[in-house]
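Hi there, hope your week has been kind to you so far. For a while now I've been wondering how a particular protein folds. I'm sending you its amino acid sequence along with the backbone structure tokens. Could you read through the record and tell me how the tokens relate to the sequence? Take your time with it, there's no hurry, and the full record follows here.
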Amino acid sequence: MSAGTQAPLLRVENLGAGYGGMPALHGVSLEVRPAEIVALVGSNGAGKTTLLRALSRVIACDGAISFDGHDLLPLTPDQVFAAGLVQVPEGRQLFDRMSVEDNLLMGAHLRRDQAAVTRDIARMYAIFPRLGERRRQLASSMSGGEQQMCAMARALMATPKLLMVDEMSLGLAPVVVEQLIDVLATIRAEGVTILLVEQDVRLALTAADRGYVMETGRIVHQAAASTLIDDPEVRRAYLGL
């Protein structure tokens, strides 16, 4: 069965959320099917990170969120994480005074399969060779690109069913971003579903199967990623064409 015919792994319906009584999301609906890369794009302030915070249950929301057949609204952030919905946050948010390897172990803190955890650390070093070279370094001593690799590896150590990646490319050199996009393709091929949240619209849509465009807390376009890249309105508003 292809991703296009499978039931959604994540289904969001008519989601509303905000801060201090001020609404930031308005009736947001989207779906992510198993083994897809779905891009959520839009300018700064469009509500993309707010949506991720609502999905992770960090902020209150109304509407409906179904993940892997379960209702997420009653769950705590820890329970959502344990269910396999894992976020790579904007700005990495590593444990700066811990080593690379200890950061990876923090990603696996709910796991009890120690032999598998050890194997997965080795796998992370195979996917991100630079992290293997830096495994004993403090996270704070690495470059921005290396820190992003560490944040992604830490999230993968949680064995996510769906990985939400927030502004992966922010502040990074193009060559590093290309490496990270290759990693997303690799882990998708291994069965991890990805929701890629980006201001860099061209980058995200090039990497994705499908895309959603968000403006002022609303989904305003949705289509196959290749269709959105060629959409005149999207090209004019986001690609400068």
About this structure: The chain has a mean pLDDT of 91. The longest strand covers residues 22-32. The radius of gyration is 17 Å.
